Amino acid sequence: MIGTLHIKNVGIIDDITINLNEGFNVFTGETGAGKTLIIDSLQILAGGRFSKEMIRHGEKSSFVEMLVYLKDEEYIVSREVNLLGRNICKINGRLITVSELKKFMNKIIDIHGQQDNQSILEQSSHIKFLDDYIGDKINLIKQEYLEKYQRYMTIKNELKNNYGDDKEKQRKLDLLNYQLNEIEEANLEVNEEEILDEKLKKILNSENIKKHLEESHYLLSESVLSNLNDVLKSIEKISDYDNNYDKCREIIQSAFYDLEETERDLYNYKENATFDEEERAEIESRIDLIQDLKRKYGNNITEILEYKDEVEKQIQTIENLSDYIEKIKKEKEILEKDLDNLANQMTNLREEYSIKMSSKINEELKDLEMMNARFFVSIEKRTEFNTTGKDEIEFLISTNIGEDKKPLIKIASGGEMSRIMLGIKKVLADIDEVPILIFDEIDTGISGIAAKKVGKKMKEISKNHQVICVTHLAQIAAQGDYNYYIRKEVKDNKTNTKIEQLNEEGTIQEIARIATGKINEISISHARELRKEKIA
User: Fold this and answer.
1) Which among 16, 157, 451, 488 is least surrounded, fewest beta carbons within 10 Å?
2) What angle do CA 169, 170, 176 make, to 5 degrees?
């Protein structure tokens, strides 16, 4: 159960702390005082969506925190959201993600508001209600079914999308073989493009290169080497007189030999620095071919060769496709049998438990003053598998004797929907392990005896669950174990929400106020009578 709830800077709530209790906790109060903001705060704490407009005007962040007791353990759960939408979620001081918070809180809190009356009208949600009622018996089968279903759909997509019919396979094979031959015939080398670019650059500048090679060779052979040779002869004549002179001689001699070798290289370079137009044309043609392949198969030669490897794999796969298709077709047949068996098991459970669920809900509807209503679960079997089996589930109801059963959306009023949903919640609550149920003004469209029965039904649920309820009906408030009054207060030109837990006399006065709009002897007397009818 929730022990303490702390809310700061949510809407008109400045900073409030609410101490809650086991049993039936009822919130009443002025319109616009912040009752629904408390439920919104619990939804935030349960990992729900948060709008920055919910942050109190002038503040930078909202903060919600609660102390919750689960069996023999206690947890402090908190969530802070700032104007930039950043979340800080914690459980017992440990930082967690919003998704982790939601997963944790889903096991603790079930929040039911007026919008949930709409969810029961959606046929797609009906199978979940029924399966929740069945519980672990069907969940174990569904888990095995879903694993096989996912593999089944993968195989179906492979057979449908990847390979096509024989003509399509041949067209694809022809294209791949053409691409492979085109790349193979090019006989590409990884660094070839850089080498070709360098060769072409030399060809395009061949005249300038030859001119400077000849000039360099002439200067080196006729001037530099000749002079250096004279220097070497001169220094050799004095090298015996001083070691430093001899060192100079060694350096000059080494330089002379190096330059002599360089002179021979320059001679060979200038003699070979001629390129014919045929070679240039061949290089340019080769470069054009590589550019064409790059446009088709990759940004560089490495990527082209990688693409070639991939094409070879695809060709091999298609050529061996018959064996592979036969293999996965056999797997598909086995999966279909397994899925059909598991789907039949789920159908049998749903048919069995739909009768039990309908019977229990009809009992609850009688208690909720829908004496002539009859609730039914329709189960129709489809031919195709889906994520939940083959069943199509729809809730039907006949609200009057002699009328045909029809979908809920066609006949149920707002007040009827509130009671039908509460009846379902009551039936599910009997088997549900979620310890905290929260109801936010689900009493729309009901009054009188029906409202009294709704209050008693919530009180019954609170025997096994902590129930928190926001209501505007005296008949429901009268069933509260703990009643809280919410009001708004204006101070320093700011509106603040205030909450107080009422004592018994305060509870009587609040029941009188919401019953008649005023507090007097008659309304107080009526409130006491309602209070006497509270379930023990």
Assistant:
1) 157
2) 90
Per-residue pLDDT tens for 117-152? 556 677 888 898 899 889 889 999 999 999 999 999
- In terms of phi and psi (left: phi > 0; alpha: psi -120 to 50; beta: otherwise), the region of 297 is alpha
Least confident interval from 56-65, 234-243, 298-307, 370-379: 234-243
pLDDT in the model for residue 222:
78
Give the chain's end-to-end CA distance (angstroms, integer).
20
Q: How far apart are CA 122 and CA 177, in angstroms?
A: 53
Quote the domain boundaries for residue 3.
1-119+422-536
Q: Which of 289, 319, 349 is the last residue of a domain?
A: 319
Residue the block writes with tokens 């794999």: 313
**Exposure class string for 174-201: b at 16+ Cβ within 10 A, else e:** eebeebbebbeebebeeeebeebeebbe
- Answer yes or no: pTM beyond 0.85: no
Judge whether 4 lies within some domain. yes
Rounded (10°) angle between helices 321-367 and 301-319: 80
433 pLDDT above the threshold of 80: no
Is 212 within the bounds of a domain?
A: yes
Q: Could you tell me the two tokens for 368?
A: 């909720």
- Higher pLDDT pick, 367 / 81: 81
Q: Is the pLDDT of residue 329 over 70?
A: yes
Burial 433-462 (b: 16+ CB within 10 A, else e): eebbbbbbbbbebbeeebbbbbbbbbbbbb
pLDDT-derived band at 414 (thresholds 50, 70, 90) equals: low
User: Tokens 């048919």 correspond to what residue?
Assistant: 351
Residue where one domain finishes, among candidates 263, 297, 319: 319
pLDDT of residue 258 exceeding 60:
yes
DSSP 333-397: HHHHHHHHHHHHHHHHHHHHHHHHHHHHHHHHHHHTT-TT-EEEEEEEEEEEEETTEEEEEEEEE
Q: Are residues 190 and 112 in the same domain?
A: no
Same domain for 84 and 11, yes or no, is yes
Can you tell me whether residue 332 is helix, strand or coil? helix
| Pair 457, 364: CB distance under 8 Å | yes
Question: Could you read off the pLDDT of 207-230 as tens digits, one per residue?
Answer: 777 777 778 887 887 788 888 888
- The number of angstroms, rounded, from the C-alpha of 142 to the middle of its chain's C-alpha atoms is 22
Q: Determine the Cα–Cα distance for residues 8 and 16; give it in Å rounded to an integer.
A: 7
Domain count for the chain: 2
Domain CATH for 30: 3.40.50.300
Tokens of 390: 């083959």
Question: Given pLDDT bands bounded at 50, 70 and 90, which one contains residue 413?
Answer: low
Q: Where are the beta strands (DSSP E) in 364-481?
A: 374-386, 389-398, 406-407, 436-440, 466-470
Q: Which residues contact 102 (CB under 8 A, 6 or more apart)?
A: 46, 47, 48
